[in-house]
Amino acid sequence: MIDFDKIWCEKYRPTKLDDLILDDKSLNVVKQFKDEIPNLLFVGSPGTGKTTLARIIVNDILKCNYLYINASDESGIDTIRHNITNFAQTKSFDGGIKVVILDEADGLTGQAQGALRNTMETFAKYCRFILTANYKHKIIPALQSRCQFLDFKPVINQAVKRCYNILQHEKVNIDDDQKKKFVQLIKRYFPDLRKTINELQKSVIDSILCIDSSGSDSELLSGCFEKVINKKSLELRRYLIENEDRFQGDYDTLLANFLDYLYEQKLDDLKEKQCFLQEKLDVLGVWLGFLKEKQDALKEELDFLKEKRFS
What we know:
With 311 residues, this protein is α/β, with parallel strands linked by helices. It folds into 3 domains: 22-151, P-loop containing nucleotide triphosphate hydrolases (Rossmann fold), CATH 3.40.50; 156-209, Helicase, Ruva Protein, domain 3 (Orthogonal Bundle), CATH 1.10.8; 216-310, no CATH class. Helix content is 55%, strand content 10%. It contains 13 helices and 7 strands. A 5-stranded parallel sheet has the order 2-3-4-1-5, with helices on both faces. Helix 8 (176-189) runs antiparallel to helix 9 (193-202), helix 10 packs antiparallel against helix 11 and helix 10 crosses helix 12. It starts with 7 loop residues before the first helix and ends with a helix.
């Protein structure tokens, strides 16, 4: 049997609303829920607390009967026709509402999402739905319009505080040279708090924090640095596209990490460093901006195709 107390991300998973890291706007919305909720759509990056909040709502706020389904495992229309319909069509024993948590709903096929739309309407008297998704544009507009939308954007200061409290609770010693690496690690994986906590636990050896900064992130930044300093713009562009999975396509965070990396490079004097930063960041900024525009344009095209297909 798995001992979850040895897995930090499970041991410290919030069970109360006040323990969840949420922006003030979303937190105030959820605090209004008492005995009733609308259909909900939670959207955000992995590890931001979408599923955790859904479980808090059904277990702590509503205390209701619920069905949990991971749509990445059961993505077909049969899941809607059988599992969800059989659960939703009956009234709960206590007379309260029932809730279906459909995790990773953006993994449902278009046909399954169309069937879910009808199911939500048919059993609205007895059942509510909480959908979670990493990508809003993968949810058809007909479902989006039937749900109250919450965009998960954790606050980084709260994330730093939570991670530090975990280390303190686990009695982990943090040397002075590790404090900066501790903050950099959180910035690197933010807003994925689950990934951050897993990486922190992996970096603790004999109750001492030992973050190794020589991992793939440094290798990626070193590769960018070599191409920028030699003005190989086309190679830099190709290198970033080929390695997007290493930084999850987050060009804003990549640029911030690259700035930190440049600052740590050994240059002869301050004037040389300033000139270097200005010249090289101009080159890098152009390509990062181009790639982000390309990414945004692709997302808009996908949204248009979704609306056209399911409207």
